[in-house]
Prior knowledge:
By secondary structure, this protein is of the alpha/beta class. Helix content is 37%, strand content 17%.
Amino acid sequence: MHYLPxxxxxxxxxxxxxxxxxxxxxxxxxxxxxxxxxxxxxLPDADSEVEVRKVVRSLAKQNLHTDDYISFLGAxxxxxxxxxxxxxxxxxxxxxxxxxxxxxxxxxxTLQTIFEYQSAICELTKMDIANASMYDAGSALAEACHMAxxxxxxxxxxxxxxxxxxxxxxxxxxxxxxxxxxVICPADEGLTNIDKLSKLIDENTDCVCVQHPNFYGxxxxxxxxxxxxxxxxALFIPVxxxxxxxxxxxxxxxxxxIVVGEGQAMGISQGFxxxxxxxxxxxxxxxxxxxxxxxxxxxxxxxxxxxxxxLQTREQHIRREKATSNICTNEALCALSSLIYLSTLxxxxxxxxxxxxxxxxxxxxxxxxNLQGIRPAFSQEFFKEFLVKTEKPxxxxxxxLIDKKIFAGVALSHFNxxxxxxxxIAVTEKRTRQELxxxxxxxxxxx
Length: 447
């Protein structure tokens, strides 16, 4: 309360107006006294600002930074290069202080950046329309499933087993009270089992969701999966890695209905797991079912170019019975970062980043195949990430390599305790030939 401009006299006046004698009486009206904690919290005595700064700096020094390590971390968040221009732009006060445009047409700058972001996502995915962004890929996938249910009005959603485990949990949370059956399609040899999908899908299916590349990094047979899905009259929803679209077919080219993905790879720091950026795009025919908001371009009464919130599907803006979303905001600053990233690299730049990820990851994969005590888990084609099986527990290998200034990968035991001998290894364009060779040599010594 020290930074609020209230004096003890102000507090007394407010309490008197409320008919109370103390702040504790006010609390007792809101929080039952029997559950209030009255003991000492155990905090140390207050320090000066100078001393607090010293403590905070000492804590910050304990953080491990991927710039100080050779990083092969992945599983949804990746160590891609972030062009310096991004920070130079987003740290301008008009950008990093911008908030959700409630009085939208006053915020022309914010609306224009969202419009350009939507355009870039459509260009990248080859889809017709995109919304202003979502919180992350997991929430984007959940919203896409809900969107498909609203469109199809059926009762079942089929999710590939090889979608990121966190995304699967988010979908279950979102749809728990929606009277929708969630069916998990099993995998076989690192890919979604097409035969099992054919047996699971029926006329009650709203949508089929797959991740491409999937959680293990393998490339799915999306054309076959799309055909099975559409033959049953359901919607096909892939979860994609935006960087991969520099070298593999974008979802618009294999007839995806809705596409979602994680935009962290496009100019957003790993940040200990956030904030992230979910993107969502679809065919034009589903424009009125998109969650969140869509910014459009128009002209004013004088014929001048301007930007407006064209569509909003939240009950705050339209009749409750017509609402298809409760999303009230978007990841504006993260979306701007991705827009700058895509604009800076351009088509050729994205292709170059993707090619480097592909070639470097395959170089590492080829050499790991020759090591003892570790082997690739699958022989499937992959993009930039692959799964290995280790004789030692993966966590032990990872801890040993941290001492060598290497982040070796992500242990699957964090997602499934039974998979303690499996590790995901991701290779981005930042890794050099020398770093890859050093990793192979050090890994061979550890295992």
